[in-house]
Amino acid sequence: MITEEEVQFAFQRQSRWRARNLESQIGNTPLLRLRRVARGLPLGVEVFVKAEHLNPGGSVKDRAALSIIVDGERSGHLYPGKVILDATSGNTGIAYAMLGAARGYPVTICLPANASIERKRILQLYGADIIETDRTQGSDGAQSIAREVAALFGQKLKRRPAGTRKRKTESGLVQERQGGAPVTVELMAPDLCPRYAALAMTGIRIGISPLWLRRRLALCGMRPLNNVVDVTNYVMLELGQPLHAFDLAKLEGAKIVIRRAGEDRDFVTLDQTSRRLEPDD
User: Fold this and answer.
1) How do residues 46-67 score in pLDDT, each as one tens digit?
2) 105 versus 42: which is more confidently predicted?
3) Cβ contacts of 212 within 8 Å, gap of 6 or more
4) Based on the number of CB atoms within 10 Å of its own CB, is 45 exposed (0-12), middle (13-18) or buried (19 or more)?
5) What is the signed CA dihedral for 112, 116, 118, 120, rounded to 10 degrees?
């Protein structure tokens, strides 16, 4: 007589064997040196990139999905018989579907209906169930549907605990509490700007941008200033996502406040031009 526990143990052994062969390749991507991009940089400065598109699932999201699945197993929230449910616009869902197939977990993905046909086909090939959500609501709508699906089964979407994480700095390995960032953001006009994210970076040397970047900005009608400002403008033009760079040392109280102009209507932009805003701007 074979007990249920023995069946589950055999299932786990087979699934883990398949998964280990796949997971050993995640993050094991080549580091490539970019010689042409580095032209014009100071002597001794080199630029390297990680070819994350060579991960088994085709993107860097393989790393996050694997980490979350392993964390779920170690915490006891994920085990054979459980279903992985997630809301995604594509790449993370593909990573979940791939790893779920390798480890033996059914996967259900809430996906905006306007996601590409190619992504939907890949998810289906990995055996994932797809719930298409309102295309006009994007990822937020997909997350809402995922919460409703979880609620129907008496479950809650699990979030990774804040806790602490390790990061490397110039002075070595330090502990940084998540949420304890050196800069804070206050939204005083959520109707105009519902979300504003900030990231503090150190060890950046301000200098002239490489020739290719200056040329592209000039062709778009923008005047190059320096590498920090130029890269934010380039991302804005390339992706349509505005970025702003600030000197943290000059931020009063290390705080960014998002509000209407109000009485502070006059200011000087980086081109040293005085400008005036309307009170509701």
Assistant:
1) 889 889 999 999 999 999 999 9
2) 105
3) 36, 37, 39
4) exposed
5) 10
Residue type, 209: S
Stated pTM of the model: 0.53
- Listed residue (208, 213, 168, 167) closest to 45, CA to CA: 208
Q: How many CA atoms lie within 13 A of 35 on its CB side?
A: 0
Mean pLDDT of 4-32: 64
**Identity of the highest mean pLDDT range in 36-50, 65-79, 196-210:** 65-79
Model pLDDT for residues 228-263, shown as the tens digit of each residue? 999 999 988 888 878 888 888 888 888 888 888 888
Its sign, for the CA torsion 248, 251, 256, 261, is: negative
Do residues 280 and 260 make contact, with C-beta atoms less than 8 angstroms apart? yes
- State how far the Cα of 90 lies from the Cα of 65, in Å rounded to an integer: 12
What dihedral angle (degrees, nearest 10) is formed by the CA atoms of 83, 88, 89, 95?
Answer: -60
Residue 79 has pLDDT above 70, yes or no: yes
